[in-house]
Amino acid sequence: KNIIWNYENKFSPEPHIANGYIDVKDNVSFLTHRDAMKCFGYTGGHYQSATWKVKNSESILWFPKLYKNDMWNNALSEDSNTITGSLDDGSNLKDWYQLNRSFKTSPYGDRQLKEHIVFAHYSNHLGQTVYKFLGAFKISPKKSNDFSITYIRTKTRINLLG
Questions:
Q1: Buried b / exposed e along 148-161 (16+ C-beta atoms within 10 A)
Q2: What pTM, to 2 d.p., does this model score?
């Protein structure tokens, strides 16, 4: 089923929920984390965190800024198939996770096994901040090291829970 362009629905999760999937080729963007999360069963209020674990799933929604910012330097490859992330000061990322976060649930631990459904933080052509669906990514332990984590795109279409 094709999604007809309609400004009222442009950023609404409802047509995607009705279709039962989101696909990169449909140029899916949302104005808030919450709208992206609604596609995966979220019913709560405002939510503004870099990640959210999808209930009853091994998947994580991830809302990265794909440019250098306050702490992170995340970059999307030209073909959109790879995201590379590091600390913006170039310091040892593995050490940072051990000092500042739970190492077990970090990209060096359990999170390697999880699917990251990515909604990248962008400013669109109207200057609005949007969260654009880029697909599902998994961490590549072979391409990652102590200073950067590499995520490889595994899917461009996600079936929604329903």
A1: bbbbebeebebebe
A2: 0.89
